Amino acid sequence: MNRRVFWTIPALIILCLTASVQAITSVEDIDNRASAYLQYLEGVLLKEAGNTKAAMEKFETVLKLDPSLVRVYRDIAIIYFETGRSNQAIETIKKGLAFAPDDVEMILALAEFCDALDRLDCAKENYKRVIESDSTRIGIFMRLLQLYDLEPDPRNILDFCESIMKRNLQSAILYFRVGQIYEQYDLTPLAMDSYERAAMLNRDWFDVHIKLARMYEAQENKPKAIRAYESLVRLEPDNPRFLRRLLDLYVEERRFADAATLLEGMENVVGDNYEVQRQLGLFYHWGMEFDKAIAQYEKLIELHPLDPVLYMMLGEVYLDAGKPENAVEQLEIALKYDPTLVNAWTQLALAYQQLDRNEDALFALGEAQKIDPEDPSIYFYEGRFYLNAGDCQQAIVSFETALIYDPNMPQAWLNIGDCYLRLEDENMAKIAFEKAIPLLDDPTTSPYELMGTTYRQNKSYEKAIVAYQKALEANPQNENVLFGLGVAYERLGDLDQAAMVFYRILDINPENATVLNYLGYMQAEAGINLEESLELIQKAVDLEPENGFFLDSLGWVYFQMGRLSDARLQLEKALQTGVDDPVIHDHLGDVYQALGMTQKAIEQWQRAVELKPENPAAIQEKIDNAQ
Fold it and tell me: What domains sit in the chain, N to C, each tagged with a CATH number?
């Protein structure tokens, strides 16, 4: 026999025997595991029936059959703990964790045992292990916040709050609690962020909106305060305190259309209440809803035909609506019933001036001065009359008289400066602007900046550029001056130079939202660099998401790119912010027309014309062509 074959046969026999033993062992192992699992189930039933002793015996048998069945360690540990053998419970859990160190349920059991025994460091350590494995266990986050709150040093709880804020957890109550903790440590911005997340997850949670309303008010963030009070009014529509505050905020933010809508909805308050009805007329007027304002005052006049104030207010609406003839008629009726209404005389003077009845305008101002010779506003109106008429010398006299009665009237000094610029006396203009500066909100303004701004408002853009450049000699980093300079270049049509100035501002302050928007819109309007414009405007919107003018710019660049659906969405959002601007209505009309929604386009263009745009004829032509 071949020697190689002789030795191969025994080897094969040995291999077969080994495999048979392994197979028998494997079968026995499977049988043990099956038996262990069945006995485990019996143990669970015994435990649920209250027979803990028998259950324990079953569980111990299970571990002899299959020591790797880790859930048994947890059940045994719970029995130990419930029967007062806490140390044995903890040791048993640790044995189980030796087999399965990442088993979440056993880690949680260990944390809860430690927590119950006031071993708080152990509890916190293991609770943290649980949430690292399973972040959906909101109750454990809440318990950890409680445990950290017991520590005298706030650093751990604040670090834990920070870690929570980095997660995307779907729990309003957790973010609310984090907000309370931040508020407790006077970390207001972080608290607001937490409450805002809570509000996003639960729009109907009254307490979180109350928190946000108070914090926004304390921060003087009126747009966000409005949003919070709108939520509160939605939740409690008959709460007079919330309604009143929301109404006040709308007025403070000049969202008069929203104020009027809110007041209209307060049927139980409005009724026939004269003061409220009159206020509603004011909101229509201030919101430039002139037709509604006129109808409102006419309705009130029917009820109170001898009230001179109503005629005066109706006259003011007609004046602002560009109907001076109607304004004169109503104001003269008001003065017939009460010749002492100073404001009626001044408004009548403005109406006469628009009708080129200059002698009548001066007479009306003279009558106002007779009634109240120390009212500075009368002399200010007189100064504006002379300035518009081109009589700068007489205008200066009137403005200086206004300053005698009110030395803290910056507008009078600014108009005097304007007069001197028109008289080409920059030295005297500079003196007037220097007088105005301490009375302005920004006392760091330079006289040359005011000079540049005045030239720009008068459309003397070349002179404005020279003045702004002088202002920059003293402070080359002044963003306001640079912005005015950029606008002057843009108005002259020098877009390249304007862009250079605007980018200079962005080098100083990359988050200057106004400049980001202006530069992006300037390019979009010219149809150039549209991708870059989109990026600039989007950054401005990210910085101020509630700014209706920025949303308008975003919509317009989308329109220029042919993205009509996106354009419509952003322009409609712009109007929803409460901004009632003719440019936005004009843009939205163009988008509707491009989408084939002609009637909606006409409605937007008509509203744009009502709001007195710079180019009413061009918009009216669109309306005529569409009809």
Answer: 29-134 (1.25.40.10)
